[in-house]
Write a structure and sequence with these properties.
Layout: E1 32-33, E2 36-37, H1 38-42, E3 44-47, H2 48-53, H3 74-91, E4 95-99, H4 100-103, H5 110-128, E5 134-139, H6 158-177, E6 182-185, E7 191-192, H7 200-221, E8 226-229, E9 239-240, H8 245-254, E10 261-266, H9 267-272, H10 277-287, E11 290-294, H11 313-325, E12 334-336, H12 347-374, H13 376-384, H14 391-394, H15 401-411, H16 422-432
Length: 433
């Protein structure tokens, strides 16, 4: 045990009238929502990188956090793991997520770095034996080190491609060893800054082959979890190859991987791509590739990814409505890819950030579930397309232009516009949120 969270007791559900800051008001893991426990709907996870590895930097300022485990030794990494599992116990958290660089120190060579990773994986595995917290997903950090400045899979240097492939192999092994339910590929620098030095066709082929090797290795080792790609627009690369869900799906189709790989969608990334979170979720669900989510929010006055904890129930309810409509998570969950503000220095801040976010998500889930159970929104949606239920209208989708032209002439079809009733549906939505 460490003394980092000294004096902070495990958080319990005390209801909306709770007077203590250190209580869940809305998140009750055992509450039944649409026939399933709330914990099993939400499947919360703590992000190791923001909660335990991030030093409080931003694009314009250096480190503000002083943590006793900040260092480059295995002893520091073990202390970090100790603190992490103490937070998991305080929060009653079912899952966590990590990059390799979050949990192990960098070595002088690839072999030393890999040995460090496996040593810490063994240590985390021991801690998991006495903890209820499981691994939602693991991933490789292929973007922070200077070697990745021109990308990983798409790098023009074949030695960087090789290093990246070897790193992913190690991270998939680590994820499998810890019983991870997914493996994520986050292409933080898979893109380009200028066409003057970029071969788009070559880089796309490299990325496609790299992902295909990941899928092949998944089957080789018998990993039962899902492989996920996280869409990421224009930050830090000017033109990011994995820009949004639609871009990722086109990439998967191009390389025949649409039935092997799903997406992990982040709220902040959706906004940076010019979409809403619910749009990206609905599109992924319609394409059959919805896997998991990173929950956070951006500062909408800033043009970059601020990774704040969520605080808007109406906004998050829209997201969970689409997740519930899609049938809910299977291997995926709600990972808090969110970090404290640089001025939030205290251990209590880290606990309360998660407590508040979990309550926001719980309220949002219940609102979305109530609206879905009410059914009027789905009835209205179905009514808008009811004309397509008629056999003669369905037949147009397998017909041709000549036949449809003849039908319009013969039947004197002259359509009148019909209201989309958006404001009525918004009013209905707001009665639940």
């Amino acid at each position: 045990m460490t003394d980092f969270f000294r004096g902070i007791a495990p958080i319990r559900h005390e209801g909306p009238e709770a007077t203590s800051e250190f209580a869940y008001r809305h998140y009750d893991p055992d509450e039944m929502v649409l026939g399933k426990r709330m914990e099993d709907h939400l499947r919360f996870a703590v992000a190791w990188w923001h909660s335990f590895a991030w030093p409080g930097t931003d694009p314009f300022g250096g480190q503000t956090f002083q943590r006793p485990w900040f260092g480059d030794t295995l002893a520091d990494a073990r202390m970090k793991a100790d603190v992490a599992f103490e937070l998991f116990e305080i929060l009653g958290q079912p899952f966590f997520c990590f990059h390799d660089a979050d949990i192990r120190p960098e070595g002088a060579s690839f072999a030393e770095t890999e040995a460090n990773l496996m040593a810490i994986v063994d240590y985390i595995g021991q801690k998991m034996e006495t903890s209820r917290t499981k691994l939602l997903w693991g991933t490789a950090n292929l973007f922070s080190h200077r070697r990745f400045m021109a990308g990983a899979a798409t790098n023009p240097d074949p030695e960087v491609f090789a290093w990246s492939a070897a790193t992913v192999k190690s991270c998939m092994d680590a994820t499998a060893r810890l019983g991870g339910q997914n493996y994520v590929l986050w292409g933080g620098r898979e893109g380009y800054e200028t066409l003057l030095n970029t071969d788009l066709s070559r880089e796309a082929e490299q990325a496609g082959r790299f992902l295909s090797m990941v899928v092949e290795y998944k089957h080789k080792i018998g990993f039962k979890g899902a492989i996920l790609i996280e869409p990421k627009p224009q930050e830090p690369s000017k033109h990011q190859y994995d820009y949004d869900v639609a871009t990722v799906y086109g990439f998967l189709k191009r390389f025949g991987l649409e039935n092997e790989v799903k997406v992990n969608i982040e709220q902040g990334h959706a906004i940076l791509a010019g979409h809403s979170f619910e749009h990206e979720l609905a599109l992924a669900a319609s394409l059959g590739i919805l896997g998991s989510i990173d929950m956070n929010r951006n500062d909408y006055q800033s043009g970059w990814d601020t990774d704040q904890f969520p605080d808007s129930v109406p906004e998050i309810a829209r997201a969970y409505y689409e997740i519930l409509r899609a049938g809910g998570f299977t291997t995926g969950g709600t990972n808090f890819d969110a970090k404290l503000r640089r001025q939030s220095l205290d251990p209590e801040d880290l606990v309360l950030a998660h407590v508040g976010a979990m309550d926001v998500c719980a309220r949002a889930l219940k609102a979305a579930a109530a609206l879905l159970e009410d059914g009027r929104l789905e009835v209205a949606r179905a009514a808008r397309y009811a004309g397509w239920d008629a056999p003669e209208n369905r037949a147009m989708l397998t017909s041709d232009l000549d036949a449809i032209h003849a039908r319009v002439i013969a039947e004197g079809i002259n359509p009148e516009p019909r209201s989309g009733r958006q404001e009525r549906l918004e009013n209905l939505w707001n009665r639940f949120v």
